[in-house]
């Protein structure tokens, strides 16, 4: 019988894990067990981070809208309730962008909501 060399798939799997850990510090980039553990943590943090990013941006937009609307004499909560009553369907991302880049347009929107 001919000799059978084993472990092709296992080696491939290990190499793949080590490829993902490129740039990690100390033994976590080169030692298989440490690399696997580091990746489990890194990917869970990355998943959580993607959710947090959405929260952070929404909070930022609210702050920007509040600052712009208060400058025009209308607090954030009154501004948002006015938008809903007037049936103006602009989301916070767009409103924050308008407030920052097109203050004249934002002023007209604020006048509508008063």
Structure in a nutshell:
With 114 residues, the protein is mainly α.
Instruction: Identify the overall geometry.
Output: rod-shaped
Whole-number average pLDDT?
Answer: 95
The largest sheet, given as strand count, sense and whether it forms a barrel, is: none
Question: What oligomeric state best describes the polypeptide chains here?
Answer: single chain
Supply the helix-strand structural class: mainly alpha
Instruction: Classify the helix fraction into a percent range.
Output: over 70%
Question: What's the number of helices?
Answer: 5
CATH superfamily caption: Ribosomal protein L20, C-terminal domain
CATH architectural type? Orthogonal Bundle
Number of structurally distinct domains: 1
CATH class: Mainly Alpha
Assess the beta-strand content as a share of residues: under 5%
Distance N terminus to C terminus?
A: 89 Å
Topology pattern, helix = H, strand = E: HHHHH
Low-confidence stretches: none
Radius of gyration: 26 Å
Number of strands: 0
CATH topology: c-terminal domain of poly(a) binding protein
